[in-house]
Amino acid sequence: MISAYTGTQIRAAEQPFLSAGMGAVLMQRASYGLANAAVHELKSRGRRIYGASVAVLAGKGNNGGDGLFAASFLAARGMRTTAVLAAGTAHPEALAAFERAGGRVYLLTELNAGELAAHVASADVVIDAILGTGANGGLRGAAADLVRGLSELRLSSGEPGIVVACDVPSGVDADTGEAHAPVLSAEVTVTFGAAKVGLLADPGADHAGRVQVVPIGIEEDLPWPALRRFELADLARLLPQPGRRSHKYSRGVLGVVAGSADYPGAAVLACRGALAAGAGMVRYLGPPEVANLVRQSCPEGVCSTGSVADTHVQAWLVGSGMGPGDTEQLQRARDAVESGLPVIADAGALPALPAVLGPQVLLTPHAGELAALLARLGEPADRPEVEAGTLAAARKAAGLTGATVLLKGATTLVAAPDGAVFSQADGVPWLATGGSGDVLAGIIGALLAQSGTDVGRFQTLDIPGPARWAALAALGAAMHGKAGRSASDACEGGPITAGSVADALPYTWGKVSRLSNSGPHSRNSHSLPLR
């Protein structure tokens, strides 16, 4: 499992080492790892090392010091090094080492920002070391002009240099993932000690590229993480597996209240997702015309027009494909929530539910639906505001409702009402297609139904309290993403449909399960494949 921390947590873990006079040692470890990462990026692209050019954008603090020391190591490998001092000054010892290694220094001013942007744009490697984890806000003045101009030049370049961010891309908040423009998007972010929360939440993840963690010796002193992400070994360990004497009822029965005359396909896709995710049985409740379509598409399902109270299940899925005029379906959704069973509530159910819920109720909005939910709770927001602060929005909604909130997106965030957060980014952009969220709801619904049965293995997860529901939702989001990737890979990276995601899920499930013992498991991976 990948554990991510806030900048405050990292600095607190560093403090005993700094007090013991080991600050220079930590910086050397970080800088050496940063330099090695730059070399690896060049080698992986088949580019030369000796004679390659490196430009460091250096701030005045320790982040800039890391970048300058790294450049001095690269100079020893025969690389030509340039530094642009964004604040006119820099870490004294690092700057001295850089100059001793033969590096050339430029002082940034309002007058030369455009000229220096053109110079930096020609470098084979650009190290962004202006702002670190303790920065408040984004780049200003000449530094903002430099990065803005550099970003524009890179867009027009046929083969731009490789951008390596030092700890975090400058302008990305390490604690929240909020991005203060302009931000120089990186191919790789080399972060020290542990992954930072802001690198695993949008929009920060948009700018981070791949994330590589460099150990610096503080890892054993880190507290409980602020955010977690499942890796392949975690998924394999947690996926439900039936035993020799399991039967359809012991494997989990999911009730589905979804679909309407306007959106009958949502019910079909939700049921297909649930069946593909291993539910022992799916019981559908809804209008006769939708039930008939479900019967035709999912003959394994049991369809009824009855009530929630008369339907025996272990969990409920409600809301997919329902609108404000679907009064009977919306009442069923409310009844499901009042049953006390685990419930995943999607789409049309969100506005119809009580304002206060429990952590066993999983809400799955996209950014627009989350904005509407927050407004209903007295916290006005619009979609752009949610997208600019996904982590804060998901946490706020979970805190206000008492429910578990899964915010769908390129990076899916799952927030528990106790503050725990999971982040998954396993999919492909083609998953942004109609009905994809209905399949996701079905997958999570099936996991909810199986979580308390003899096939569920979720009790092995060492996560206490309400966060367990968030972890289960993150497991579903990860499998949804991987199934989408499998479906796209099957057509050489081409477009997919929601139905093809459901079709790919059993294969993906089996593939993940087979890889359960494929390699060592670590608390903090040194290389996090986020793209």
User: Strands across the major sheet, in which order?
Assistant: 13-12-11-14-15-16-17-18-19
Mean pLDDT: 94
Strand content: 15-25%
**Terminal Cα span:** 17 Å
Short description:
The protein is of the alpha/beta class. The chain is 41% helix and 15% strand.
What is the topological layout?
Elements: E1 2-5, H1 7-19, H2 23-44, E2 53-58, H3 62-76, E3 80-85, H4 92-100, E4 104-107, H5 113-121, E5 125-129, H6 141-156, E6 162-166, E7 188-192, E8 195-196, H7 204-208, E9 210-214, E10 227-229, H8 232-238, E11 253-257, H9 264-276, E12 281-285, H10 288-297, E13 302-304, E14 315-318, H11 327-338, E15 343-345, E16 361-363, H12 367-376, H13 383-388, H14 390-401, E17 404-407, E18 412-415, E19 421-424, H15 436-451, H16 467-490, H17 498-514, E20 527-528
Parallel strand pairs: 1-8, 2-3, 2-5, 3-4, 5-6, 6-7, 7-9, 11-12, 11-14, 12-13, 14-15, 15-16, 16-17
Antiparallel strand pairs: 1-10, 9-20, 17-18, 18-19
Helix pairs in contact: 2-3, 3-4, 5-6, 8-17, 9-10, 9-15, 9-17, 12-14, 15-16, 15-17, 16-17
Name the features.
17 helices, nine-stranded mixed sheet, eight-stranded mixed sheet, elongated, about 525 residues, alpha/beta, 20 strands, disordered C terminus
Describe the structure.
The protein is α/β, with parallel strands linked by helices and 531 residues long. Helices cover 41% and strands 15% of the residues. It is built from 17 helices and 20 strands. The protein has helices spanning 7-19, 23-44, 62-76, 92-100, 113-121, 141-156, 204-208, 232-238, 264-276, 288-297, 327-338, 367-376, 383-388, 390-401, 436-451, 467-490, 498-514, and strands at residues 2-5, 53-58, 80-85, 104-107, 125-129, 162-166, 188-192, 195-196, 210-214, 227-229, 253-257, 281-285, 302-304, 315-318, 343-345, 361-363, 404-407, 412-415, 421-424, 527-528. The strands form 3 sheets. The chain has a 9-stranded mixed β-sheet, sandwiched between helices. An 8-stranded mixed β-sheet has the order 4-3-2-5-6-7-9-20, sandwiched between helices. The protein has a 3-stranded mixed β-sheet with strand order 8-1-10. Helix 15 (436-451) packs across helix 16. The longest helix has 24 residues, at 467-490. The protein is elongated and about 80 Å long.
